[in-house]
Amino acid sequence: MQDTQPTLVHKRGKGTGGRAIIFRETIFRGKRGRRPTGGNRPISAPPCLRRVRALEEAGFIKGYRALLDEKRLGYEVTVFAMVHLSSQAEADLQAFQDFVRSQPLVRECWMLSGEIDFVMKCVAPDLKTFQEFVEKLTAVPQVRNVKTSLVLRLSKDAAMVPMEG
Asked: How far is it, in rounded angstroms, from Cα 60 to Cα 5?
């Protein structure tokens, strides 16, 4: 059976092989114009960029983002909100998700199994602004209750999934 995964650098071992090198390079450098490398061995830009393009086309690389410092941009408060809905009917789930997508303070929203239906990562310039958001959130018809936890400190922020190689 032929490997349908894009060939990158020389495959090393099992799993992601050489892909890990390109993934790490892409994460650390983003999509800037620096000359990419093949791990410890520099490779010319055109072959490396072709390999990155192949990863993009295969869906391994979904996009590129700049990592911004929330606090320097005036968002002093980070809060996780755990939301329990009154119903898990598809129409209610969709209505709640539509609300969430329209809220700029919500940076991430994850649907969960178990007692909590959604967990949201929110940022706000101050507690008063976040409290105003919570008042809007609890007024959404599908929301049964909301529990919030204020972030004291970030302990880990890994930008990529674990990879061997």
From this structure: 10
pLDDT digits (tens, 9 = 90+) for 96-115: 999 999 999 999 999 999 99
Using the CB atoms, write b or e for 146-159: b if 16+ within 10 Å. Answer: eebeeeeeeeeeee
User: Which two structure tokens, joined as six digits, stand for 27?
Assistant: 């994460």
Task: Quick: pLDDT tens for 125-148.
Answer: 999 999 999 999 999 999 999 999
Total residues found in the chain within this entry = 165
In three-state secondary structure terms, 147 is strand
Distance (Å, rounded) from C-alpha 107 to C-alpha 99? 13
Report the alpha-carbon distance of residue 10 to residue 118 in Å, rounded: 42
Contacts of 19 (CB under 8 A, 6+ apart): 5, 6, 8, 55, 60, 163, 165
